[in-house]
Specification:
This protein is α/β, with parallel strands linked by helices. It folds into two domains: 2-154, 3-Layer(aba) Sandwich (Alpha/beta knot); 167-223, tRNA(m1g37)methyltransferase, domain 2 (Trp Operon Repressor, Chain A, Orthogonal Bundle). The protein is built from five helices and nine strands, in the order E-H-E-E-E-H-E-H-E-E-H-E-E-H. The chain has a five-stranded parallel sheet, with helices on both faces. It has a two-stranded antiparallel sheet with strand order 3-4. The chain binds S-adenosylmethionine. Residues 89-92, 114-116, 118-120, 133-135, 137-142, 145 line the site of S-adenosylmethionine.
Length: 223
């Protein structure tokens, strides 16, 4: 899977993608993360990507022509352009969750467009397939949402995680009402810490009992 991130600040991504699981996923060629500077698609000598909003008001908005050129240029280079999803990061978008992460694993290429300042010219919305928010709060830019999406989707790409390790994770399964289940409680040594003991069943060696306890705990956590 290839993620293409359109941003003013590609350097922001250096840390999160150069450690641990996402780093290894890139090294193994399971995931590729490419950065594209929005400013490279500006055509004037000052490399202008934003302008003041019509009607007045504070702040600047990204120009539709610059964003359009960036998306079109990327799509022209993607060999399986049909299997590409273009996503605008926006607090006004559909809320991101595990189902949305899973849906995105269907695509070979994902283009993530990160905003800044006051956001985008409204016509940018016509250039993308989908608008995603990572929650009901406003961040300074789309880079942190893009990092969250790349991380959550990459974990679901086959072979990125060890086999079966995601199976019981939070949000990976649902109850009969369609509510997400959360992962069961986990413990490691010591057996007792500040008076709190590891549940006996986990040390019983009885796998059927342990599984039953875990399933019950997953339901209880949800309630
Ligand atoms: N003026 C915009 C509004 O009120 O809807 C907010 C602009 S915000 C300061 C700048 C950029 O950060 C947005 O264009 C978007 O790309 C990104 N952003 C901020 N909060 C976000 C969120 N909750 N989810 C996804 N992207 C977000």
């Amino acid at each position: 899977m290839i993620f293409n991130i359109i941003t003013l600040f590609p350097e922001m991504f250096n840390g999160p993608f150069s450690e641990s699981i996402i780093k290894r996923a890139q090294e193994k060629g399971l995931v590729e993360i490419k950065f594209h500077r929005l400013r490279d698609y500006a055509t004037d000598k000052h490399k202008t990507v934003d302008d003041t909003p019509y009607g007045g008001g504070k702040g600047m908005v990204f120009k539709v022509d610059v964003v359009d050129r960036a998306i079109l240029n990327l799509k022209s280079k993607i060999s399986k352009a049909k299997n590409c999803r273009t996503i605008l990061l926006s607090p006004q978008g559909q809320k991101f969750n595990q189902d949305k992460a899973r849906e995105l694993t269907k695509y070979d290429n994902i283009i993530l467009v990160c905003g800044r300042y006051e956001g985008f010219d409204e016509r940018v919305r016509d250039l993308v397939d989908q608008e995603i928010s990572i929650g009901d709060f406003v961040l300074t830019g789309g880079e942190i949402p893009a990092m969250a999406i790349v991380d959550a989707v990459s974990r679901l790409v086959p072979a990125v995680l060890a086999e079966k390790s995601a199976e019981n994770e939070s949000f990976m399964s649902k109850d009969e009402k369609g509510n997400y289940l959360l992962e069961y409680p986990q413990y490691t040594r010591p057996i007792e810490y500040k008076g709190e003991k590891v549940p006996e069943v986990l040390m019983s060696g009885n796998h059927a009992k342990i599984e039953k306890w875990r399933q019950e705990q997953m339901k209880m956590k949800r309630d």
